[in-house]
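Dataset card, provenance and construction

Sequences and ligand SMILES were collected as paired inputs. For each pair, a complete structure of the chain with the small molecule in place was predicted and serialized as structure tokens. The example below shows a pair involving lysine. Curators did not alter the output after generation; any descriptive sentences attached to a record were derived from the structure itself.
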Amino acid sequence: MSRYAHPAGPRHADVLPEEHPPAPPEDLHELDPRVWPGSAQRVDGELALGGVGAAALAAEYGTPLFVLDEAEFRRRARDYKEAFGGIGADVYYAGKALLTKAVAKWVHEEGLKLDVCSGGELSVALAAGFPAADLGMHGNNKSEAELVRALEAGVGRIVVDSFDEIDRLERLAAERGLKPSVLVRVTTGVEAHTHEFVATAHDDQKFGLALSTGAAERAVRRLIDSPHIDLVGLHSHIGSQIFDTAGFEVAARRVAEFLARIHTELGVTLSELDLGGGLGIAYVPGDAPLTPKAIAENLVSIVSRECRAGGLPVPRIAVEPGRAIAGPAGVTLYRVGTVKDVEGIRTYVSVDGGMSDNIRTALYGAEYTCVLASRVSGAEPMLSRLVGKHCESGDIIVNDLYLPGDLRPGDLVAVAATGAYCYSMASNYNHLPRPAIAAVRDGASRTIVRRETEEDLLRLDEG
Ligand SMILES: Cc1ncc(COP(=O)(O)O)c(C=O)c1O
Ligand SMILES: N[C@@H](CCCC[NH3+])C(=O)O
């Protein structure tokens, strides 16, 4: 299962837990629909995405290449919009998962709002023409410049995360004669069942203001009294890549109870409740993600029940899915460079990217599914590890997998479900230029982000 395979904390490739190798799949070339985008298919043996063959994509754009299935992205956005919009809730796509101008346009066209969490993400959204009123702005340390940009652009919601930020925002709003709409990010003390690095609602971490210590209540009181800030609601996000509803339910109950308490004790009715993102996706066939519909019904019934019990109107709910929309729409194509058999152990297959385009395996012990993309082969399965070209032994993309035994340099391999938190967390480690992103749809492809060049890398170097 691809919840996170390894405990938190630094680890070295040599001490990766040596599990028994999983049994090889019956069909090494299968494209499991739980993991691959809807358009993925084999055409004469070759992987095609959005109707475009892997070899043609690699020839046109080079490798490594992020291929984004536009129809899959839009379908997922629409599924959220239908599930939550149908019950009067707002859906903010979390741009941190993947944000480009094209992506922002798709999000807007599908009727979603957009969550940004830095000045850079805000710039991309505004450059794409995204209506500022439909933006939500996050961040545990928004700079003065970022807050000014958000205020001047007219960002619809700012989610405040600290008392320092409240002071800063109040001053900046007062100076400009503005009154921004604000939500308070509340930490509910929920221990989400996910990797420690991506759980965000337990008390001992940097995000939000804790319910348990009274900090959240102090922030609410402070904001209610502010003439320059319009407190409209609360925000809670428990973490990411979550499969069970229990954590969402407890968090929803706790924030709804808090809303009710604010209503009775402070006489203020807050009208919005944002329950964040975090829904997991299938990275490997055994994963069983929740559907947007199931989670929507659950959350709304909990919030409605708590609010009715507290005698207050049900607030407008919002959610912020990122991974669940972008993740399964992306596939990374790599070119195999070397195939090295470490006798008696496994075969190391090195490709032309690695931890600079997918840090998630090294960072969280994330699991991925990978297939030979350029052809099919009748060769016996070979226990492999898909690794990158970085100067780092932990530069692993897929830890344990079976590939055909005749895999050779020049073959293309494809890694599924890389649409979220791969390009957006990419780096230039070892001065590797970041890959292009090509969008595919109905048999055609186009560049939505071009490949970096070495000139791009040198442009910032003043010598
Ligand atoms: C505040 C907030 N909202 C939304 C998200 C999106 O999460 P996910 O991509 O897991 O849906 C995150 C990331 O974890 C987040 O921190
Ligand atoms: N970047 C993480 C998730 C954290 C999301 C932001 N709070 C991942 O790849 O799973």
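Derived descriptions for this record:
The mean pLDDT is 92.
The first strand starts at residue 41 and ends at 43.
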